[in-house]
Hints:
The chain is mainly α. The chain has three domains: 90 residues, Fumarase C, Chain B, domain 1 (Orthogonal Bundle); 224 residues, Fumarase C, Chain A, domain 2 (Up-down Bundle), CATH 1.20.200; 98 residues, Ribonucleotide Reductase Protein R1, domain 1 (Orthogonal Bundle). Helix content is 62%, strand content 4%. The chain has 21 helices and four strands. The protein has a two-stranded antiparallel ribbon. The chain has a two-stranded antiparallel ribbon with strand order 3-4. A hairpin with a 2-residue loop joins β1 and β2. The relative contact order is 0.10.
Amino acid sequence: MKDDKDTIENTRSDKLWGGRFSEKTAASVEAFTASIHYDSRLYRHDIAGSRVHARMLAKQGLISEAECDSILDGLEAIEHEIDSGNFEFRPELEDIHMNIEKALVEKIGAAGEKLHTGRSRNDQVALDLRLYLREVCGWFQELLSDVQKALVLLARKYENAVMPGYTHLQSAQPVRVAHHLLAYYEMFRRDKDRLADCFKRINVMPLGSAALAGTGLPIDREFVARELGFPAVTANSMDTVGDRDFAVEFLADCALIQMHLSRMSEELVLWSSQEFAFIEIADRFCTGSSIMPQKKNPDVPELIRGKSGRVVGHLMAMLTILKGLPLTYNRDLQEDKEPVFDTVDTISQCLSITAEMLTGLKFNTDTLADATRTGFMTATDLADYLVLKNIPFRQAHSIVGKTVAYCIDKGKQLEELSLEELHQFSQSIEEDVYSVLSVQGSVDSRQSAGGTSARTVSEALRLAEEALGIE
Length: 471
């Protein structure tokens, strides 16, 4: 009988969850299902949740105070081992939750086996991911502020410089360099606002939902929420364990951040080309060619632009993972963390290097000014001038269009036309038109809120500096 018992024990699963299984898990399945190689980065959040959970269990009389103290000491020791790189993560234990629990049991014995009372890995991982993303949202706000500061400092430096503004990548109207840079400041401000709003939906406490239906044990979810800094607990246990909307929203916000970085990078690539020659990127942020010794390649903005594909792809991956899942938890949700983690790594790198690169950016102001003197960029100013002479805008538009056609035929710019030539198109044009046709006159006339005049740009810079604490 002893031999038969030994045979049975040797063939049974040795997993913490393996009581009902009669066979050990195949090695191929262990390798396929393991997530410890990437979810180990959640160890601090997992331990933080377990500490509060243990204290709640003791408060509710589900474990003794002595057992709670032993659990807390064991968790502290495990966290120290992981911090110092001395902890052995075991793939056969699947994930960060089981690795920590197994190590705890090995350290403190039976008390460690009581830690999982009243919870499931389903609500445990939801807690860990929320704690992690709550932390990342704050971190990304700081990184976005660093990029904004670099933009504002650059805008202040080139506050009075002018450059072409474009639509359809065709010269359109002159603008201040500072106005152009502050356009990106506004994009990143919206990104910060979105993260702050996303934070509200991340910041809801899921623990206590257990596997899917809640628990019959007398737990105190509100206590856990207060201790972990959550203002509320989730309302429906079934929704909670299968919910990754908060992660999708975070990835969507990140996709917008990366898209904004990519748009700015595209302009930096264009502007640094010989054809534009608007800017110079510092040598330390460029690379050379292995065959062409004259080359200076804008690799940093090119890579930022290229990394947009992976960030947008991760958002699509998460939506695809979720789109067909029935309630509640399904193992498919294990696939949520790699897209999130890689997005966090990519965005943090791109924001950091962008802020650094902007500090070494130089605008070629003479080249920019020269570029504003071509392309009839004050044509709209001439139309506005005629409107102020009581000519309907559509008529003014037609008059100016004919004037531009005349300039093209004669090889002249608008400001080079004599008053006599201008009178061919409208007798309402007078000597004062030349102040309107100048580039400086054009930019300074744009005094509507959000415009590119000296007054509006100066005020926008002041507000940005005040918001960012720049003195």
